[in-house]
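Notebook, bench 3.
Goal today: get a predicted structure for Succinate dehydrogenase complex assembly factor 1 from Loxodonta africana so we can plan the truncation constructs. The sequence was checked against the plasmid map this morning, with no discrepancies at the termini. Length recorded as 112 residues. Pasting the sequence as submitted so the record is complete.
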Amino acid sequence: MSRPSRLQRQVLSLYRELLRAGRGKPGAEARVRAEFRRHAGLPRSDVLRIEYLYRRGRRQLQLLRSGHATAMGAFVRLREPGGVGGPLPDDGDGPRSPLEGARVPKTPPGGR
């Protein structure tokens, strides 16, 4: 097996630091693991995407380490119809509104 690249070592180090910083904060460890698993299949050649995610992870680590963070949750960006700037670009990080991808129960005929 070849030696890990510098970027791989940095990502693994970030993973360990995020897990340590998330200890004792509800939802943090599970969220860190889920995020890393979600992006584990990125090809090694997609360096720009990996570096972007690495920088984003560093910012989240700073927030977790600050004394103000008590838990780690998921943030959702909402689209404003006809808002300034138009629609948000899709960066592949999930739904853009709380209702996107939600199932709507079908009502039977007769309204009950």
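The first helix runs from residue 6 to 22. The mean pLDDT is 77.
Flagging this for group meeting.
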